[in-house]
Amino acid sequence: MVKHLLNITLITSVFMILGCTDNIRSFPSRSEQGASLLHHRTWNLTHIGALEFRPESGHKMPSMQFDQTHMRFSGFDGCNRIMGTYQINGQNIQIGPSAGTKMMCHNNQQLTIRFNNALSKVTSFRASGHTLKFLDRQGQLLLQFEATVQPR
């Protein structure tokens, strides 16, 4: 009787361990989770560097969207529509080359310049929950965004 009970306990333990092992492998890695958070969302600018960004009355919010299927991004820099390609390798991201409209925006010209300069220096990202941070080579914050979910 004790031998039978011991065999059942051993078999149950083996199945539990194997079941947990398969579940662990099915979860995406931390970098895959970060990359998957980029897509199907509109990312609205909240910070340029350490400075919090608040749009002036009547101005549109700079934003970005990422298309996983075509590895392209699109967005708005505060004055112009922007678009281009991107590549992700773990937590590293290469943005560009990019293109955009060339509107003359007297009130937002400095924002456009600061946004695009920061975007050109991005080498890595951190995505967690509803926050996306673009960082430079030294890990310094360049741009920070907050997400809104896009319909699929």
TrEMBL record:
InterPro entries in the cross-refs: DUF306_Meta_HslJ, HslJ-like_sf, Hsp_HslJ-like
Residue ranges annotated for the DUF306 domain, each copy included: 37-146
Pfam (any one): META
PROSITE patterns for this protein: PROKAR_LIPOPROTEIN
Transmembrane segments: none
Protein's name according to its UniProt entry: META domain protein
The organism of origin for this protein: Acinetobacter stercoris
